[in-house]
Amino acid sequence: MTVFRAACVQLRSSDDVAENIRAASALIREAKGQGAQFVATPENTTLMAADGGAKIERSYPEDADPALPAFRQLAEELGIWLLIGSLAIKVSEAKTANRSFLIDPKGRIAARYDKIHLFDTDPGAGESYRESNTVAGGARAVTADLPWGRVGLTICYDLRFPQLYRRLAKAGAFLLTVPSAFTETTGKAHWHVLLRARAIENGSFVLAPAQGGTHANGRSTYGHSLIVAPWGEVLAEAGTEPGVIVADIDPQASAAARSRVPSLAHDRDFDLGGGE
Q: What architecture does CATH give domain 4-264?
């Protein structure tokens, strides 16, 4: 349970997969240069397409995706744990999976997670999203063991479903990852409070690398990648520009927070009544 350094890479991805791989790789190297042993990138790391159809056209099955071997090689070269927040992985002619990949320092895929909760919303400011039209939702929560303890994997809109994080924490996750591409509208209103809430209520660190700024497709994302401690303190925060933030993570701080407020042990089943 030793202290380690974690990093969030913040991106402004476009619809140019090769350029996105190059930009992400450069910032991953920068994170390693700052001493990071665990590096996480945002949702849609290599593709922010104009619409669902364009995304499918530029997506590949997992065994043909050009980003995955590049990132696996990079993780091995740098000797780091690398979470690629998500890639659009083609699973049929009409749909992709929004899939996270956890890569170990030998370049092996240690875990995969397909986003469970899909962003079908009308958040305001004239925006409307129907992720389920072109994305197949996952059905399985995922944890993986790092040298420092257990991590629980989630993606973006999952953040609004606290029961997922409770389950991951009860499965032993002291670190929760939330790679995201939050809209500017929802980010301004909810990003900080939701991430801090997930950290506090579960006594877990939260690592949330984000997309930020106005993308080539015209979409604006909120940025403000965050690293949050189990007591709710913000350890590091980005602005809206691409870049890297780092923080030292002490797994014992999660154990201490859970000891001070042992709410994970206090959950109770209950019935829902109606009136008297």
A: 4-Layer Sandwich (3.60)
